[in-house]
């Protein structure tokens, strides 16, 4: 299952719409977040510069860069934006009726209600990144990777050392392991067993089905596809790329500040058309 939040959450696919954030203004007249309707080709600019987008019931929940990364909600019908928490947040995830996020000032993991009420701190230490798998939270600190229930109690150390780009893959965890030179690593949470792919150093990564996609620092940020079933990797895009996102069976990424898309199997990359 893909995890666009780990790559910035700049693309979100819902029934009937794509949401995409143009950070540089190379795609449209002004930088911002746009709603693309694939049925009629219409493009609508939303308020804000949205990162880490989540959707429920026609509402987007995200961190707004234009408002100092405040936690915001956008009504996709009325286009009204409401600040839920005037605090800098990143890696926003909506799960189980709660919004989870890392507070950018103290670096700790929090959660709150979808209206911004009742914020509560879940970790005592700063969190580098986190993900969720079922009813379990997994987060990385300077000390190691931990697991805990959604309320943050009863944490358990799974692996020592720092991690980046932590995300779930089936019942396992994917991340870049600092102790291994930030090589792509697959961790089995129950056994602690690690599989390290030294040829891949992710600058950004995502997964879909049996494949992991990463911008590989060992080859100037070009995109590689790793087959976890057979263990082989293949370069599928030869230019430097960043911010890997997956939507509608396609791989999306930025190149020189512009969004491109290509089949997950590789092939010709095409610049995203905003209409």
- The N- and C-terminal alpha carbons lie at a distance of 29 Å
CATH class of the largest domain: Mainly Beta
> Describe the biggest sheet?
7 strands, antiparallel
Q: Give the name of the CATH architecture of the largest domain.
A: 6 Propeller
CATH superfamily of the largest domain: TolB, C-terminal domain
Order of helices and strands: EEEEEEEEEEEEEEEEEEEEEEEEEEE
| CATH topological fold name of the largest domain | Neuraminidase
Structural class by helix and strand composition: mainly beta
> Based on CA inertia axes, which overall geometry fits?
globular
Radius of gyration, taken over Cα atoms and rounded to an integer in Å = 18 Å
Q: pLDDT below 50 for ≥5 consecutive residues: which ranges?
A: none
Q: How many distinct beta strands?
A: 27
Order of strands in the sheet with most strands: 5-6-7-8-9-10-11
Could you say how many structural domains there are in total?
2
Protein name: Prolow-density lipoprotein receptor-related protein 1-like beta-propeller domain-containing protein
Pfam family, one: DUF5050
InterPro entries: 6-blade_b-propeller_TolB-like, LRP1-like_beta_prop
Domain Prolow-density lipoprotein receptor-related protein 1-like beta-propeller: 3-258
């Amino acid at each position: 299952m893909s995890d666009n939040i780990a790559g910035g959450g700049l693309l979100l696919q819902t029934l009937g719409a794509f949401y995409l954030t143009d950070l540089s203004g190379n795609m449209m007249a002004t930088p911002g977040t746009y709603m693309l309707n694939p049925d009629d080709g219409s493009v609508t600019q939303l308020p804000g510069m949205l990162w880490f987008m989540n959707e429920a019931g026609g509402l987007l929940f995200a961190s707004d860069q234009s408002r100092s990364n405040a936690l915001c909600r956008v009504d996709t019908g009325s286009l009204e934006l409401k600040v839920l928490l005037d605090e800098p947040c990143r890696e926003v995830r909506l799960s189980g009726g709660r919004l989870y996020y890392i507070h950018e000032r103290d670096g700790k993991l929090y959660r709150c209600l979808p209206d911004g009420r009742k914020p509560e701190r879940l970790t005592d230490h700063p969190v580098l990144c986190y993900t969720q798998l079922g009813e379990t939270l997994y987060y990385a600190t300077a000390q190691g990777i931990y697991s805990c229930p959604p309320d943050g109690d009863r944490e358990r150390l799974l692996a020592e050392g720092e991690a980046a780009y932590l995300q779930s893959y089936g019942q396992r965890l994917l991340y870049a392991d600092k102790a291994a030179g930030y090589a792509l690593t697959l961790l089995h949470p129950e056994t602690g067993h690690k599989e390290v792919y030294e040829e891949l150093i992710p600058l950004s990564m995502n997964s879909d089905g049996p494949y992991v996609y990463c911008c590989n620092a060992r080859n100037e940020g070009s995109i590689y596809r790793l087959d976890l079933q057979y263990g082989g990797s293949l370069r599928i895009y030869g230019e430097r790329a960043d911010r890997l996102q997956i939507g509608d069976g396609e791989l999306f990424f930025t190149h020189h500040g512009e969004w491109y898309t290509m089949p997950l199997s590789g092939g010709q990359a095409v610049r995203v058309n905003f209409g």
